[in-house]
Amino acid sequence: MKRSFITLAVAAMCSVPIAGQAQGVGILGGWSYGQVPSSNTTGHGSLSGNSGFALGVGAESGGPVGFGVNVLYAQRGFRSTLIGNSEQLSYIDIPLYLEVSVPNPAVTPFALIGPQVSFEMNCDANGQDCPSGRDKTTFDGIAAIGLKFPMLSGLSIQARYLYALQNLDYGTISNQSDYRQRSFMLLLGLGF
Q: So where are the chain's domains?
């Protein structure tokens, strides 16, 4: 818990300059598609991705090259047909990213990339307790592409991919050394 607090405090301090100089703040929301752990799993029932919603706020510095920060609640993980073998997770994600865009009054294409810290808020193992002793704070990398529509009240749409930088080591996976959280998000944004 102490390490999670320190990580959250550092992320908040890093985001203060961005929020203070923000050219744009807004809300983001959409769908988060979870990923099945591995094709190497056996004896754990039929597995499927745990998809859910993502919702949060963000701030960006603006311009052709800028920085941004988001705070998102997102659901991901996987489901199993066997009780106790699912990992349905809810996180608070805080990505800090570099954004490159081609400003245009009608449509602005953009791409972003950067690190993300994620804090596990909830874990549901299909009616059972989730494995204990695992890290509830993860460090990830994100990348996204999208379009902004300045003429439509700051509307934007983006496709975002998350790749975890550390193994989750879940006890329900036969190849425990090879499971990293991955997620794909489709997000709609509204800037103010």
A: 2-191
Give 88's contacts (C-beta < 8 A, 6+ positions apart): 50, 75, 77, 78, 79, 123, 124, 125, 126
Distance separating alpha carbons of residues 66 and 174, to the nearest angstrom: 42
Phi and psi of 45, rounded to 5°?
A: 80, -175
Q: What are phi and psi of 169, to 5 degrees?
A: 50, 50
pLDDT tens per residue across span 30-47: 998 877 655 545 555 666
Is residue 14 within a helix (H) or strand (E), and if so which, with residue range? Answer: helix 2-20
**Tens-place pLDDT, residues 98-126:** 999 998 888 999 999 999 999 988 887 77
Residues 61 and 22 sit within 8 Å (Cβ to Cβ): yes
Which single residue is written with the structure tokens 């439509």? 152
CATH domain 2-191 topology: Porin (2.40.160)
Query: What are the C-alpha distances in Å from 187 to residues 28, 72, 96?
Result: 6, 11, 16
Helix (H, G, I), strand (E, B) or coil at 183: strand
Strand 155-164 versus strand 182-191 pairing type:
antiparallel
Output the pTM of the full model: 0.75
